[in-house]
Amino acid sequence: MISADGSLTFRELDQAVDEMTSELAVMGVKAGGVVAVLSWNSAPFVAVVHAAARLGAVLLPLNARLSADELGWQIKDAGAAFLLHDEANTMVAEGLAAVAGRPLKLLGLGSPFEGLRMSGVRAVSDSSMTARRQRTERRFDLSEVQTILYTSGTTGRAKGAMLTYGNHLWSAVGSALNLGVQTDDRWLACLPLFHAGGLSILHRSVIYGIGCVLHESFEPARVNKAIDEDGVTIVSVVALMLEQMLDERGENPYPASLRCVLLGGGPAPRPLLERCAALGVPVVQTYGLTETASQATTLAPEEALSKLGSAGKPLFGTEVRVLRDDGAEAGPEEPGEIVVRGPAVTVGYLGQPKATSRALRGGWLHTGDIGYLDAEGYLYVLDRRDDLIISGGENVYPAEVEAALQSHPAVAEAGVIGVADERWGQAPLAVVVARKGVVVSDEELLSFCRERLAGYKTPKRIVLAEALARTAAGKLMRGELRQRYG
Amino acid sequence: MISADGSLTFRELDQAVDEMTSELAVMGVKAGGVVAVLSWNSAPFVAVVHAAARLGAVLLPLNARLSADELGWQIKDAGAAFLLHDEANTMVAEGLAAVAGRPLKLLGLGSPFEGLRMSGVRAVSDSSMTARRQRTERRFDLSEVQTILYTSGTTGRAKGAMLTYGNHLWSAVGSALNLGVQTDDRWLACLPLFHAGGLSILHRSVIYGIGCVLHESFEPARVNKAIDEDGVTIVSVVALMLEQMLDERGENPYPASLRCVLLGGGPAPRPLLERCAALGVPVVQTYGLTETASQATTLAPEEALSKLGSAGKPLFGTEVRVLRDDGAEAGPEEPGEIVVRGPAVTVGYLGQPKATSRALRGGWLHTGDIGYLDAEGYLYVLDRRDDLIISGGENVYPAEVEAALQSHPAVAEAGVIGVADERWGQAPLAVVVARKGVVVSDEELLSFCRERLAGYKTPKRIVLAEALARTAAGKLMRGELRQRYG
C-alpha cells in the first residue's frame, strides 16, 4: 500500500494491523462492539478497518463532511462506544464525546501512527510496493456484520446499512470475475474510505493480494501523477472527478498501464463517455449502492464502446431486474425501478425493521433508482426515482437534461430539478455552473437545449450559480437544489 | 472454446448447451437424476457438463480408461439412469447397458454433435475465440451436488466424491484470486474432463469468462503448438506431461503469452522444476485432490522460484494443516498427514457414511497424503501415506527416491515401492524406464543413487521396465507396481 504515510508491503501492513488490534483491545474493543472512525483517508484508517475485523468488532466509518448533529445521530443509532479520529477531526470528535450522553472512548490516529513508526515508515520504492500474497489463516463468519455504512434516505434520518463479511467478499469476488485480477494491479483509492466505493478497494486489495494507492482526498493533478508514476492500473471515480482529471490532463494521453477507470456514482453524461472514448481512456461504467457493498453491475472493459452509456450486467452472483409500478417485470427498454438480489446485498438497516422490509422484499433490494434493461440484459440507469420529474404526464429524467447542458462547452456542471408548474404539474429547472472565466447567458443555454431535447424536457428556467452541492462521493445533491430553488 | 470440433464463442456454446439440454430433457433427464458420461474430451462433453447443470441433474464423468467391471460398479453405485458416450466408447457403453441389470438409456454424442452442426461449426479464427462475457441469470443452490467423481480408494472399490456447485465455485474463485484472471486468458485442457483437474477448467472458463482450448487427449507436440498458436496462457499438467512437453520442445523457448504452467498430480521432481526455472517456463506447483474439486494449495506465480518445490499456500477460503499420528498439529518442517478444510472440500462419498466420517472429521478432510508446512506456512507434499516405506524405523518417501533417479540423464521414468526385507522390515525397490534408445545398467543407477541419497533410501534393487502404469491423469500407480514387484 502506498499512502502519504509511506509505502507498506503486505507483511508490514499485517504488522501495523496487529499493533492497531492490540491498541484497540487495550481500549476495550471487543467482538460485537461498534467502532466509529471519523477520518480522511490515511494508513491508520486502513489499519483500523482490518484491526476491527480481527477483533470481530463492527466498523462504523463516518462521513467526515457531515454536521456534528448528523454524526451524533449515527454514533448513537449504531451504539458506538469508541470513536477513532484523525488529527483534522479532533475537535469534532471531542465535541461528539461531550454531547454523546453515554461513554464514548476516543483515540487519535496519529499520522504516521505508532504502528507505522515502530515498523519504520519507508519512502515509496518499487520493491516495497510489490504485492506479496500473504494468505494467513483467519476465519470469518460470512453472515456476521463487518461494517455499518449510513446512507442518506430521501426522507428522515440516514439509515445504517449493515454489510456482512459475505457482502464484502462477494462484492470483491464479483468484481474480480468481471474486471479480472492481474498480479501487477494497483487500485487507486481517491474516493473516501467512509463510502462503499472507497472502502471496497481496501477489501479487494487484501482479498486479491494487489496493491492499493491511497490518497487522502481527491486532487486531479495528484491522481494523474499517481497514474503516471505509481503504477496505478485501476482507479474508481465519479463523473465530476473524471471530468476534472481530463481537464487537468489536457492532451497528454494516459499510459497503457492504466487498464480501467471505474466510473460510478450515478448516470454518466454521454459527452464525458464520448470524450473518454476519443482519448482512449479505458472507462468502465458501474452501478452500485452502499446497500450492495459497491458495484452491483459493471460493464466489461471490452464492451466499453459497444455498450456506451450502459452500466453493464450484474456481477457474478448478483441479479438485477427492472419493475413496473405494479411490481411486474418491465420489458426490454422499458424504464422502471431497479431491484437487486444477491450475496452482496445488505442484510438490512440497523434497528429499522420497517425500512428493511420496505427496501428488501423477497430478497430483492428496491433501489429507488430508475433504469431499463436492453434486450441483451444490459442495464441503463436513468435517475433516482425521487428525482424524476413528471411534466404533463411525461417522464423527464434530470440526468438526461443535465447531460445535454454539460455537452455545452461553457458548462462545468448542471443540476436539474422539478419545480411546480401550473400548466404541466411540474417542469424542469436547471442550475448551471459555468466553466471558470467563461460567460454564458441563460438564453444561449435554453436555445442549446431546445435543439437537443424534446420541448417537455427543456428547462423552463436556467439559474446560473457558483457551485452545486455534492456529497463527499461527488454525487449531486438534488435535494439541496430543491430546497433552494424548488 | 476451441476444440477439435471447431471454435465456439460463449454465445454459440450457450446455444449448443440449450440444444443439449433439450435433448437430455427429451431423453427423460430430470432434476436430481444422475447422468453418466463416458467420453474423451470433446465439445459435446462440455455441452453435457453445462446441460446437466441446467436440468439440475447430477453429472457422473466416467474414467474412459477403466475396465467395464469398474465402470459398471460406478454406474450402479451412483444410480445413473443415463449413459452418454462418444463414438470411441460405443461398444463399452452398449455392453454396460446390457449388463446393468436396470434400465440405462444410452445417447451417442456425435462429433461434431447435432447442436454444433446446427449452429454451424466454424474454423478456428481469432475473432470467434474472443471470450465474451455472457452473464446470464441462472440460479444454482450452492449446496446441491453438481458432480460425482469416483476416486480410487487404497482398498476396495472406488468411492464417489460428491462435489457441490459451491465446491466447484469456490475452487474457481480461489484459483482466480491466486493466479489472477486476465481478459485474454485461455486455459488449455489436455487433462481428461473426467478428472477434477480437467473438469475444473470448464468451470473456470464460464465463471471467469475466459477461453478454453480443449484437446481430446494429451499430445506433447499438440500442446506445444497450441501454446504457440492458439494463445494459450495457462495449461494444467502433471509432471510426466511437462517432461514430455519439454523433451519435444527442445531449445525453443515458450512465448511470453504462456503465463502459467499449473503443475499438479503429485510431488514434482526437483530436477524438473530446476529445468523449468533454467528455461524460464512459468511453472507453478499445486496440490489438490478430487475431494477438493482440484487445487487446494497453489504457489503464487511470483514465488515459483523462491519457494521451489513447495505447493504453496491454501487458496482463499481453504485451510490446510499437517497432523501427527496422534492428531496434534505438527510443528514447522515436521511431516504428517495433510488435512484440508474449506468450501471447496467435498460434502462426502455417495452412500458411504462410514468412509465419509473417516475422511471428514470436524470438517477436515484427511487426505492420506504426507507433507509438511514450513515456518511461513508453505506446504511441501512428500508422498501418499500408503506409499510410505518404513525401513529400519526410518521414513523413506518414494517420491524423493524417484526424483533422484529421474535426475539421471538416462532415466525417463521411475517408480519406487517398499518390499519386504528381513533385516529392515521394508526396503525400497525401484522400477525404472530408460529413455528411448538409451542403455543403462542397474549398477550404474544404484551407484548414482548412493551418491545422492542416504543409505536407507537407496533402492535395494533396481528393475528395468518398458513402461510404468499410470492413471489417466498421469499419476503413477504404485499399487500396480506393488502387485507386480512387491
Helix content range of the residues of chain A, please?
A: 25-40%
What's the CATH architecture of the largest domain in chain A? 3-Layer(aba) Sandwich
Distance between the termini of chain A: 45 Å
Radius of gyration of chain A: 22 Å
Contiguous runs where pLDDT drops below 50 for at least 5 residues of chain A: 112-134
Give the oligomer, counting copies of the same chain as homo and different chains as hetero. homodimer
Number of domains of chain A: 2
Name the chain pair whose interface involves the most residues.
Answer: A-B, 29 and 29 residues
Please report the first level of CATH classification, the CATH class of the largest domain in chain A. Alpha Beta
Query: Which strands sit side by side, in order, in the main sheet of chain A?
Result: 10-9-11-12-13-14-15
The total beta strand count of chain A reads: 26
Q: Could you tell me the mean pLDDT of chain A? A: 89
Class computed from helices, strands and strand pairing of chain A: alpha/beta
Strand fraction of chain A: 25-35%
- CATH superfamily caption of the largest domain in chain A: ANL, N-terminal domain
Give the CATH topology of the largest domain in chain A.
Rossmann fold
Summarize, please.
Chain A contains 15 helices and 26 strands. With 486 residues, chain A is of the alpha/beta class. In chain A, helix 1 crosses helix 2, helix 7 crosses helix 8 and helix 9 crosses helix 10.
